[in-house]
Amino acid sequence: MYLIQVQPFQTQVFLYVNPAPTVVPIANIRNAIDGNGAQVAPYATGTNVLIQGQIYGVNRNIDATVANGTKQKFEFTVIDNSTGRNGIVIRSTGTVDIAPVDLLEGNNITVAGTVSQFNGLTQITATSVTRNSTGNARKTPVNATVIAENEESQLIRLTGVTVTTWPSTWTGSGQNANITVGANTYTLRITSASELWNKTVVDVFGSGAALPVNNVTMVGLGGQFDNASPFDSGYQLFVTKISDVTIPPPIIPAISTNAPSTGLDFGSVTKNEVSASQTYKLIGKDLPTTGSNLNVVVTTPNNFQVSKNNTDFFSTISFTNAEINNAGTTGLDVYVRFAPTSDIDGAKGGDITHAVPALVPTLNTNVAVKGIQVAPLSIAEELASQVNIYPNPANGTTIKIDAPQNFSVEMLDITGRKVAEFNSSAPKLSENLPNGLYFLQFSNGTTKFVKRLMIQK
User: Fold this and answer.
1) Distances in Å between the alpha carbon of 401 and those of 129, 405, 411, 444, 450?
2) In Å, what is the CA distance from 127 to each residue of 72, 115, 118, 173, 204?
């Protein structure tokens, strides 16, 4: 600014040059506080300053009876690009003429005014506002775990928030709800210009929501309302949009297996014997790890057994929820075998179940198993199964017999007439035997059994 001043009755002209005001980084103003939270030089209360930054949030102090002509009443937050505490509240009581501009989030503005403080909240009481641009993108919120001086007038993100109270009436310029983050309790200040205004808990947090609402993420502006030195309490959060309030999808515990849809088939197994084991993976996620009954119980139908190590088999085993969660998508091995002991031979089967007692309703994912129990062999059948004759059909006078012991053998034709007799270790056939079916009757003195032989020359 240039000022030309001419003194009366003098021929000299004096030129006074007043430099243009300098834009002050907001962080410089915010950091000028003493141990009692009071503003101090060079930005003590009453100091004239000029700042430039972007509007965040909404006008928190709308009053239609004052906002007439060029007199506007407002309170909003401006954040610049300085480092540190780079946000500050801009306020007008509506008694000072302000250029009539739309004060909207995303506007970049220049503000002239004086430094002041209102209930612990550093602010600038505006004397002029100039809009520089519109539609600027919002900066990324700063992740925070508390609301304190560093979070005042900052765009912050709080996670793990619990909403403990909610307004029951919606009158005046704003209402309060209570929120907790960790061990700290803060005020959620809902102004009449916020999208949260006059909304129910269900409107904001979703169908079925009820107090307390847990595990909420909120994005908003840090604030303060503390009328006593050293101004270190009464911290608030101002949330503008419903979209800035989110709840993660509910954690739904789940159990699955990689067993084939047709289940496990063990075929035929003799009573009181066991099959070779088959394996499937037990896969779980988000199973509860606090409380009681924190395990998955695997239970088999009768005649089947399960194991965690393929060595020790039981009708029921259990895995802790934690070890299943820790196994991730790889899962844990479950070994299954068919061990029939029924009094009745034939098909056996059912479902292996997986129960989580801590959950209501209990989660189950079944694996079908089946097998056939057969009667044990007699001694004769067992011996017969160990004897092999070859070639069969025979085409000459020589055959070989593999047997676990030495047997006497009588050879009978289809009429039951004995046509030959020999020892199993040295079988010999007559050249005169016609083609056809013959029966070899083996005997070791106590046990007899029969094997078939075809002759085809």
Assistant:
1) 112, 11, 13, 15, 13
2) 11, 11, 17, 23, 37
At residue 283, φ and ψ (nearest 5 deg) are: -120, 130
Q: How far apart are the first and last CA of the chain?
A: 130
Contact 306, 336 (CB under 8 A): yes
Is the link from the previous residue into 100 a cis peptide, with omega within 30 of 0?
no
For the chain, 457 residues long, the average pLDDT of each consecutive 10-residue run is 49 51 92 83 92 92 54 86 94 69 85 92 91 94 96 96 97 94 96 94 93 96 92 94 91 90 94 95 91 91 97 97 94 97 91 86 85 85 90 88 94 90 90 90 90 91
Pairing mode, strands 155-163 and 142-144: parallel
Please name the residues in contact with 45: beta carbons below 8 A apart, sequence gap of 6 or more: 38, 39, 114, 115, 116, 117
Tokens coding 25: 């980084």
CA 122 vs. chain centroid, Å, equals 40
How far is the C-alpha of 336 from the C-alpha of 307, rounded, in Å?
7
Give percent helix, percent strand, percent coil of the chain, each to the nearest 5.
Answer: 5, 45, 45
Query: What does the block give as tokens for 3?
Result: 């000022």
Q: Report how far Cα 279 is from the mean position of its chain's Cα atoms.
A: 28
Q: Are 360 and 301 in contact (CB under 8 A)?
A: no
- How far from chain centre, in Å, is Cα 314? 33
Rg of the chain over Cα atoms, rounded to whole angstroms, equals 45
Closest CA to 182 of 152, 212, 162: 162
Comparing CA positions, the residue from 401, 389, 403 lying closest to residue 454 is 389
Question: In terms of C-beta density within 10 A (0-12 exposed, 13-18 middle, 19 or more buried), how is residue 338 classed?
Answer: buried
Bridge-based pairing state of the strands 87-97 and 121-133: parallel
Alpha carbon distances (Å) from 231 to 122, 188, 225, 226, 434: 11, 18, 8, 6, 119
